[in-house]
Amino acid sequence: MDKINAAITAVGGYVPETVLTNADLEKLVDTSDEWIRTRTGIVERHILKEEGKATSDMAVRAIMPMLEKNNIDPLEIDLIICATITGDHVFPATANIVADKIGAKNAWGYDVAAACSGFLYALQTGAKFIESGTHKKVIVVGVDKMSAIIDYTDRNTCIIFGDGGGCVLLEPTKEDVGIIDAKLHSDGSGREFLVQPAGGSLMPPTHETIDARQHYVYQEGKTVFKFAVTNMADVSYDVMTRNGLTSDDVDWLVPHQANLRIIDATANRMGLDASKVLINIQKYGNTTAGTLPLLLWDFESKFKKGDNLILSVFGGGFTWGAIYVKWAY
Ligand code: UT7
Question: What's the DSSP call for residue 189?
Fold first, then answer.
């Protein structure tokens, strides 16, 4: 029997309307447009301001146009995997809410919490359901409303993060395209350097945790940077070489958008020309699980069938990894 591959057959994306510029942040914390641009590459980010709207709403706004454009009835969807660390609730899972809101009544779903690496973890998981032959249409969505957990008095974090996300549809193919290889890692000893300390079972929310601002993201930027810069570069290089690819064979690097300097280090390690490196950090900042599908959404028109894409990421956990995708359309 021919091997079944999981192909990405459609992409979608969404960012909220409200834009938060570096100039806006200059009014909130002691920072400058010049510092943010040169240290991170970020110029602006989008923030979900609408009353009563949450992560699931952004997921729906990414998924529905994708399904409509491709004439897919939500009833055909078998599974929705939602990568997020800012689910609508601690439980139930946001994937369940998304399924309800889009009318995917035949789908089951669950969330994957791997911070910035969430989309790659979910993509690899989703691919396995397709490759096993048990599922025909799987939606993998990576989306975060980071503004819900960011402290806009903390210049170490508020300058980096934004809201938004994107999705892909996975379908089976017998062709030599799709999710070809994945190398994913985690190292929980890094948990203290990038963490939302309170709100979970270790430190349930109390007046004290709120007063101490422990329900917001804490990041020791320098440490995270150090781990990110080596691990994201190494894993991307490993996935490239273990699949017999040279820098000439790689058509596109799809790197997590946390810091332009981390992206540059990864591209350099792989020996890639800047023209092959996808970047949209300047307009969205770091949308956590949203960055990689937002890149696929923004640059979809550039991809050709058979193109070799290396998707790579580093994030909280620590978690990191790279996936080799052969573009299917
Ligand atoms: O996506 C999940 C994974 N996250 C990441 O990959 C993020 C990794 N980390 C980073 O991207 C960077 O560490 C940051 C962008 C967060 C910070 O950049 P940095 O170059 O590591 O800055 P730093 O923390 O070493 O600070 C350098 C200087 C310090 O001043 P002194 O001590 O040299 O006088 C900081 O106080 O810059 C100062 N600083 C700022 N100045 C203006 C720190 N943050 C700011 C700020 N505006 N927002």
Answer: G
Task: Give the domain range for residue 27.
Answer: 5-175
Digit-coded pLDDT (tens) for 239-285: 999 999 999 999 999 999 999 999 999 999 999 999 999 999 999 99
Which candidate, 60, 319, 18, places its Cα nearest to that of 162? 18
In this structure, the residue with its CA closest to atom 18 of ligand 1 is: 39
Q: How many whole angstroms separate alpha carbon 294 and alpha carbon 225? A: 22
CA 109 to chain centre: 18
Distance (angstroms) between ligand 1 centre and the Cα of 222 equals: 6
Q: Output the CA 216–ligand 1 centroid distance in Å.
A: 17
Question: Nearest CA to 9 among 321, 296, 298, 302?
Answer: 296
Q: Are residues 66 and 87 in the same domain?
A: yes
- 265 and 150 fall within a common domain: no
**Within 6 Å (CB) of ligand 1, which residues are found?**
31, 35, 39-40, 116, 155-156, 159-160, 194, 221-222, 224-225, 228, 258-259, 262, 286, 314-316
Distance 310 CA to ligand 1 centre (A): 27
Q: Which atom of ligand 1 is nearest to the CA of 224?
A: 8
Are 119 and 212 contained in the same domain? no
Provide the token pair at 145.
């409303």
Which residues form the catalytic set? 116, 256, 286
CA distances from residue 52 to 88, 215, 258, 326 in whole angstroms, order as listed: 10, 20, 28, 39
Q: What is the CATH number of the domain that holds 25?
A: 3.40.47.10
Nearest-CA residue for atom 27 of ligand 1: 222
Contact 288/143 with Cβ under 8 angstroms?
Answer: no
Count Cα atoms within 13 angstroms, Cβ side, for 305.
Answer: 5
- Residue 40 Cα to ligand 1 midpoint, Å, equals 9
Same domain, 40 and 137: yes
CB contact at 8 A, 144 and 165: yes
pLDDT at 2 over 90: no
pLDDT at 313 over 80: yes
Q: What is the pLDDT of residue 1?
A: 61
